[in-house]
Input
Amino acid sequence: DPNEDTEWNDILRDFGILPPKEKPKDEIEEMFLYLQKEAEGKMNPEELEEAEDDFDEADRKAIEVYRQQRLQEWKCLQRRQKYGELREICGEQYVKEVTNAPEDVWVIIHLYRSSIPMCLLVNEHLSLLARKFPEVKFLKAIVNSCIQNYHDRCLPTILVYKTGEIKGRFIGVAECGGIYLKVEELEWKLAEVGAIETDLEENPKKDIMNMMTLSVRNISAHEDTNTKSSDVMKPDIT
Output
């Protein structure tokens, strides 16, 4: 049996008289199960390194390719999922957390007062967006801890930073989207200034804006019609 594991067969293989011993089917399946498991992210690099001893040089090269690929994907994922929550800070942390944030990180900070309902709504929406976009740093801070004597009419205030500079600002109820603000509308606003990469295809408020425009036009047309009718009914005074 050329596949029999004997010293004589090993000598014949060394001289090229016998072909290399074939891997048993179950061993090959085991190798590909390892590769599949690792490719799916179910095996970490340390586990894979321990398993390499069971494979030959060709197997190790194939595994190394998969491992490096998965390692890079894992590192990228770790960088992207660094945040993932709306975190509270105080004024003393502002420079460190916002102005001096890493240059490749977008920072969105909400200055709020808990007694203002619109501020609470914005915090709810930002919490959802923080989970959806974990690569972005979402922060909130009670306005008095950062700015003294800040007017309530300027709240909510949302500031968007990148490389220590303000890239976008939404000050007051109207600029933030109104009292009926939806999370998708806020997402779109933040995407417009470049802070997040949204999967929304168009402005969620587009339909509402179109309806408002159409309503205004209808009212104007109705008024014009009434005016013309009134002109027709006016007596001809000479």
Summary: Residues 87-193 form a domain with the Glutaredoxin fold (CATH 3.40.30.10). The longest helix spans residues 206-233. The two ends are 127 Å apart (CA to CA). The first strand starts at residue 86 and ends at 88.
